[in-house]
Amino acid sequence: MAPLVLIAASVIAAPHVVIDPPQPRLGDPVVVYVAGVEHGGEWGSAEAFGYSFTLQPAGKTVLRAFVAIPSDIEPGPYPLTVSHPRADAAWPAATLQVQKRTFETAHLRVAKKFTKRKRSDALKARLKREQAQIRLVWTATPTPVRDLGRPARPTKTRITGHYGTARVFNNERRSVHYGMDFGGRIGTPVYATATGKVVMSSMRWGSGGTLILDHGGGLFTTYFHLSKRRVKLGQTVTKGQRIGDVGRSGRVTGPHLHFGVALRAAYADGAKAGQIRSLYVDPAGLLMLKIGRTPPSPSSVAEAKPSPRKHAE
User: Fold this and answer.
1) Which backbone phi and psi does 101 adopt, to 5 degrees?
2) CA 186 to CA 228: how far, in whole Å?
3) How far is Cα 85 from Cα 100, in angstroms, rounded to an integer?
4) 213 φ, ψ to 5°?
5) Buried b (16+ CB within 10 A) or exposed e, 129-167
6) Is 74 exposed, middle or buried (0-12, 13-18, 19+ CB in 10 A)?
């Protein structure tokens, strides 16, 4: 490959990586900025935890990627490597200092029919179709970077459920809650957390009235159990725009909004190398970020300077 092109230091500082937040928790979304590089408009990748995340031009000399911290790994330091067509090798860019976190456990007692019921052939076929539909959302080519600013809460009601909560039905662990729940009566307004494009608007078996917004760069937000969807597929919406109403559609016991945040990722190696999937991260972490085209000031985040790595022989 051609060497990474840098222009005069008086114009562009030495290449450096900025991680926001600098010490993420298990399950957090992280924004990675690679600044001080002449990228020529070409895309690269940021790799961590066995996944590859799209690294896209955000500014004239800035690349940006969204990276998901898995919720089921051990806390501690993990390498983050960055590669780009104009670099002579992947950079050992930084270390992700993943912080310990304790998730909640919810114990629920329900009638056995809710945990032992067999699914009909018709339901199995429907679920298969719905899985294929949502897979198309995650596997589509990432849309360009957006200057999103600080995301907003999707509704004004109180939080009733947290990300990472293990759900135990009748003493048997059945699932993990990969979103944030907001209470509310049917009809309570639901707003877009940030500017984006509607890439799914449908009624689904589990999530009921469903909207998914693509915010660029592999970042998506999801809005489940809606009673009404007020925007159409393909429509561009702005932060704070009303996009739907709280409901109790789908597999729920009462009205609420399930708000989720998903990041597009590809398996970096192994038998699944290159296959695309979504990784759900904590919405609370997203709401704490300010997402721009340039890195936040060094006073608010830690910086880690990369050092070149030679090609493997």
Assistant:
1) -155, 140
2) 9
3) 35
4) -110, 135
5) ebeeebeebbeeebbebbebeebeebbebeeebbbbbeb
6) exposed
pLDDT of 53: 98
Q: Which CATH homologous superfamily contains domain 107-265?
A: Glucose Permease (Domain IIA) (2.70.70.10)
Task: Rank 1-5, 87-91, 173-177, 242-246 by mean pLDDT and report only the highest.
Answer: 242-246
What is the per-residue pLDDT across 128-171, written as a single tens digit (0 to 9) for each?
999 999 999 999 999 999 999 999 999 999 999 999 998 776 66
Residues in the chain: 313
HEC sequence for the chain: CCCCECCCCCCCCCCEEEEECCCCECCCEEEEEEECCECCCCCEEEEECCEEEEEEEEECCEEEEEEECCCCCCCEEEEEEEECCCCCCCEEEEEEEEECCCCCEEEECCCCHHHHCCCCHHHHHHHHHHHHHHHHHHHCCCCCCCCCECCCCCCCCCEEECCCEEEEECCEEEEEECCEEECCCCCCEEECCCCEEEEEEEEECCCEEEEEEECCCCEEEEEEEECEECCCCCCEECCCCEEEECECCCCCCCCEEEEEEEEEEEECCCCCCCCEEEEEECHHHHHCCCECCCCCCCCCCCEECCCCCCCCC
The one-letter code for the residue type at 34 is V
Q: What is the pTM of this model?
A: 0.88
